[in-house]
Amino acid sequence: MKIITAIKQVPVRDSSVHIAAGAKWYDEGDLSFEINEPDAYALEEALLLKEKHGGEVIVLCAGPERASQTIREALAKGADRAIHLECDDLAGMDTLGVAHRLAAAAASEKPDLILTGLQSDDLGLGQTGVVMAEILGIPHATIVMEVKAEGNSIHVKRELEDGWFQWVEMPLPALLTIQSGISKLRYATLMGIKKAKTREVRRVAGASLAAATAPAISIERIYPPPKRKETQLIKGSPAEAATRMAEILKYEVRVI
Amino acid sequence: MNGVLVILEQRFRNGIPAWIGMSWEALAAGQELAANLGQPLMAAVAGDQLDRLKPDLASKKLAQAYVVHHPLLCRYTPDGFTAAHEELIRRLEPSYVLFPHTYRVRDFAPSLATRFGTVLIADVVGIHMEGGGPVFVRQLLQGKLNADYRHVAGGPCFVSVQAGAFRADALEAGTAPLETFEPALEASQIRTRPGEPFRQSAQTVDLSSAAVIVSVGRGIKEKENIPIVAEFAEALGAELAASRPICDNGWLPMERQVGSSGQTVSPKVYIAVGISGAIQHLVGMKGSKAVIAINKDENAPIFEVADYGIVGDLFEVVPALTAAVKKARSG
């Protein structure tokens, strides 16, 4: 089975972010980046499927030069090779523009399956996978918790709301967006890290893949979220703050 | 192109169709937007055998309501729903299409928007008018930043509305003419075969009726540290709950998860320990009467909804709280 895993590099969770001049984006210069967490689970699922059914796992990532670190880490975990769509212009593109590039790169590989995370931790629009499937003309399923491949079709368990689930069957090739927590993430082994250095990373100029289209949606301004509540911050040592909080629980919230 | 079209959602449970509550929040957002734009408001619901839902639809203040009916829409499939809504939108040519931000909408609305050469502005928390047009507010970086989005292309603008962002009780009643719309669907268009929805296991923990909840997030770092928070919950007589990553890791059972994929709670007090406050978590607990946050990062989004907070190391603060609560109880 030939599997493409589309991954994105996002700011490290819990980074403190600063709004850039012009308030259209945030400063990236002082941030560290890592693989988008749901994409890490998509990669894990791809590696598990390969271990079970054989084949190849190809990592596909659109991003600037800094993304090569995240691509190396994916190779160290066991991906066979990678395609790095070198793009410095992502900030000016919308989901459709990025998905067109990813879809063009994926199409040239003729994969059986494309996996990606259900959403990104930075923009959180949750659409790139579905839009890629639409562009490629292949079926998809989102928020997937389990994958079983059988010949030319796959059965996937989708998460619905309120603790409900559903199995869906579809023919290959197909695209799945993977939910976080579908399995345990593996760590790269020392051997894996060594091997990763010899694995192929094909670099493709993003702009060469799909005609640039004007974005359909754009960010006008970013700003800190307004506070919905006035938070009373309890200061002091842990013991002092705890004593005051116990009083609040007893006399103000009245649950003691 | 004119008008605001709201796509409502229903689900078959035990053989009968039932409304999804978030539909009415999306409709409330639609009423407000249509009024601000001076455009007519329309609503549509897709499925099969939807007669039971018609009275609810006919009693809303709408210029026109549509029941999109086809036997192939009985069970949800992304292909069926995308094609049916595409046909409806091509006929009505609305300038805005609003959805509730449900799992189903996340599954098919991005394809639908792609067919119109645009991108769904997903998970919107607010809409306001600026310079004669609407600006859609959504969150970035798991709630750390807000962003104002505009639709800058021609054609309809697609927007999904986050749970709880608009109030269903603000909905205006009225009368709406009903029309049945029969899309030209064919079985060959539908590539996926959906199974019957099912529940994994009987839910034995009902957090929705708990008066006091202590909830734990990533800040706890390791499974071995969970007892620190469990002891605090026990001292307070509270139910123990968690954010999604804790349950994903198997540190607490899934049925203790609060958030969009877990339970929705509204206790007298919700104490969030080491929870940053991603949107998916907040939608599950923002109905709490009081919120207390304990977090080392004073900029964590959880403080936006907290009434009381302690900025500090939970490994120092929580044991101190357990002791203080025990003392307060005996005092």
Q: Explain this structure to me?
A:
Chain A has 256 residues and is α/β, with parallel strands linked by helices. Chain A folds into 2 domains: 2-208, 3-Layer(aba) Sandwich (Rossmann fold), CATH 3.40.50; 227-256, no CATH class. Chain A is 28% helix and 30% strand. Chain A has a 9-stranded mixed sheet, with helices on both faces. In chain A, helix 2 links the parallel strand 4 (56-63) and strand 5. In chain A, helix 2 (67-77) crosses helix 5 and helix 3 (95-107) crosses helix 4. The mean pLDDT of chain A is 94. Chain B has 331 residues and is an alpha/beta fold. Chain B folds into 2 domains: 4-189, 3-Layer(aba) Sandwich (Rossmann fold); 207-330, Rossmann fold. In chain B, 27% of the residues lie in helices and 28% in strands. Chain B contains 8 helices and 18 strands. Chain B has helices at residues 22-37, 54-58, 78-92, 103-115, 226-236, 244-248, 279-285, 314-330; strands spanning 4-8, 10-13, 16-19, 41-47, 64-69, 96-100, 121-130, 133-140, 145-151, 157-161, 178-181, 193-194, 198-199, 212-216, 239-242, 269-273, 290-295, 308-311. In chain B, the strands form 3 sheets. Chain B has a 9-stranded mixed sheet with strand order 9-8-7-10-6-1-4-5-11, sandwiched between helices. A 5-stranded parallel sheet of chain B has the order 15-14-16-17-18. A two-stranded antiparallel ribbon of chain B has the order 2-3. The termini of chain B are far apart. Classes of the chains: A alpha/beta (256), B alpha/beta (331). The interface between A and B is large, with 80 and 97 residues.
